[in-house]
Amino acid sequence: MKLSEGVEWGLHILLTLAWLGDQEPVPAAKLAASHDLPAAYLNKHLQALSRAGLLTSQPGPRGGFTLARPPEQISLLDVAEAIDGSQGAFRCSEIRRRGMGESLPARCFEGPCAINAVMQSADAAWREVLARHSIADIRGTVDEHAPEAAGVARRLFDRDPGSASRSRSR
Amino acid sequence: MKLSEGVEWGLHILLTLAWLGDQEPVPAAKLAASHDLPAAYLNKHLQALSRAGLLTSQPGPRGGFTLARPPEQISLLDVAEAIDGSQGAFRCSEIRRRGMGESLPARCFEGPCAINAVMQSADAAWREVLARHSIADIRGTVDEHAPEAAGVARRLFDRDPGSASRSRSR
DNA sequence: GGTACCGTACTCGGATAAGCAATGTCCGAGTTCGTTGGG
DNA sequence: CCCAACGAACTCGGACATTGCTTATCCGAGTACGGTACC
Questions:
Q1: Spatial distance from the CA of A62 to the C1' of C10 (Å)
Q2: Using alpha carbons only, what angle is made at residue A35 by residues A160 and A10, rounded to the nearest 5 degrees?
Q3: pTM of the full predicted structure?
Q4: pLDDT at B114 over 90
Q5: Distance of B61 CA from C37 C1′ (whole Å)
Q6: Which residue gives the smallest C-alpha to C1' distance to C24?
Q7: For strand D, which residues in window 41-100 of chain A come within 7 Å by CB?
């Protein structure tokens, strides 16, 4: 069982966008540079986040990606499902019906497979934890232990309020 | 994120062995036939269960596999980890340190990555549910909804107490 | 001077290869049982 | 008749192909901006 590493990338990217806190689109190339990631591949995951409605994309010059919702309304589960798919880890193939199961009456299979039931409840517990935490929560925790991080992010993307040469600095 | 389908196989096989409830070894080929599974591949997973100490194997004629512990002491987590590995789903690659993270002081990285912390707690919740349920619990649930299943299993493996031609029936 | 048009540069978006782990298969080492020959 | 040695069959155990999915990359469609020609 292994989660796609794109989930980790997506979470860090969304955290970075949450730090910027505005609606200026950020191109994928700059987002990739912010964490030293391969730009072409990150683009793929950004599209998945866009399709899931977590990011809004804008083509053309001055285009890029912005958060589609406030960070408080984006849970870690949203990100994980957007990138890794919403299917649970365990998929019951009903092998209880095969082999010796074929000689059992149909009423034995009316209820759900007991093994599957426990596995699904474990999956639900996993999702429940992820749904409880939002990107804003992560931002809060990091700001507590590393207050400098938010400033570094804003400076990297020319969002420093102290600099007057912001609009046309490229 | 996808769990190996071998986990499902292993759970059903262990459930079948729990129904037999004795110490007579059962060869892999018969276990495979009981659920219509490819024998050669099932053998691979049985070896994993054996290495993990959940099954004991015995070579030679009249050899096979037996439960190494009573079903009450085998949790679903034991089976999942034996077959799919004990590594968690999320693996933090510390990308917070790369890119813009390089310009942050070292003290920012003393604490664990906040994203990783939440993901690990979700994994812990998943494991906790699986650790709470044993093979014996599964057997109890199935016996409740499908009481015929245990008998079919015992008959398939010549464990029917009513038949006198048990010892030398082959 | 103002306005409309055009070319350019930059962006996302999806279609297209490469690598690797999970899946699936096979044959050899080891052990037990039945048989056979001898005492 | 009893015992010991031998051969054969059956089992697990690990080494060897193959498939599918994750990872990785590229180029094309579309858009906004800047410059230029015209009114």
A1: 8
A2: 100
A3: 0.92
A4: yes
A5: 24
A6: B41
A7: 41, 43-44, 59-63
